[in-house]
Amino acid sequence: MNNIAIAIHGGAGTITQATLSEEQDQAYRAALREAVEAGYALLAQGATAVEAVELAVVHLEDTPLFNAGKGSVFTKEGKHEMDAAIMCGKDLQAGAVAGVHRIKNPVRLAKTIMQHSDHVMLSGYGAEDFALLHQLEFAPENYFFDKYRYEQWSEVRDTNIFMLDHTEQRDEKFGTVGAVAVDSNGDVAAATSTGGMTNKSYNRIGDTPIIGSGTYANNRTCAISCTGHGEYFMRAVVAYDVSCLMEYKGYSLEKACEEVVMRKLVDFGGEGGLIAVNAAGEVAMPFNSEGMYRASKSQDQETFVAIYKES
């Protein structure tokens, strides 16, 4: 039986102890712990990696602490546009959704697209029609309302400024959630979900739903979920780049992640991080920002939860 393992993230950016109160720190840590342990419990019961990453991301989508699902930020029009993706490393099947408004858990829709359509990515109203067809749960607009998110948007809604999450600097905030896992069969999977940028316009879509940029999984190499400034991660094809270094150059998981996140992205001007796991159950969680909400659990490790760089 293969070693099981799971890792999750809740976004990266200028996250320091000075930016969070003790109460906020504890709330984030509790939410991360709950999500990673829920996913691990499924793996321990013999569930697939796909099922585990879906459940972990659903937990993160269901809390307003993170910019995904219920906690999604406001667009220029005062709405919510959500993206998500999921990928199975066993057969390279993938599903993604972009620009949906009313889906309670976009990651569930991404999984449904993967399993019940001939397509990889659906967007907007077409994706919502597909969700209706498969009886996925919708939520009213007020479900996604969060006072803190609304105040964020109110500060910039009459400007051309856009904001990501988790930093004191408005142009460098990275709000995404994600999970990667390996199950007892040695199959890996990745899932990522986001509400995008505060005050975004023109139906902007980032790296999250783009297979190979923000999300990727391949049993031969690893599973990756990214968080950062999407435009950089798309142009650098970050998730697939890690996999390529492992497949074609024989890099270890740790070395490949280090090369992409701490060297290539930094040289390119990209900030953020990623979580990764390989079929052997090894986990990596590198980031080049001040902090990244993250957690992991494996058979040979107690639950690990951290926020700041020094953790």
UniProtKB/TrEMBL annotation:
Keyword annotations of the record: Autocatalytic cleavage, Hydrolase, Protease
Gene Ontology terms for molecular function: hydrolase activity, acting on carbon-nitrogen (but not peptide) bonds, in linear amides; peptidase activity
Site annotation Cleavage: residues: G175, T176
Signal peptide: none
Keyword Protease: yes
Binding site for substrate: R204, I205, G206, D207, T227, G228, H229, G230
GO biological process: proteolysis
Active-site positions on this chain: T176 (nucleophile)
PANTHER family according to UniProt: L-ASPARAGINASE, N(4)-(BETA-N-ACETYLGLUCOSAMINYL)-L-ASPARAGINASE
The protein's name: Isoaspartyl peptidase
Organism: Pontibacter actiniarum
Taxonomic lineage: Bacteria, Pseudomonadati, Bacteroidota, Cytophagia, Cytophagales
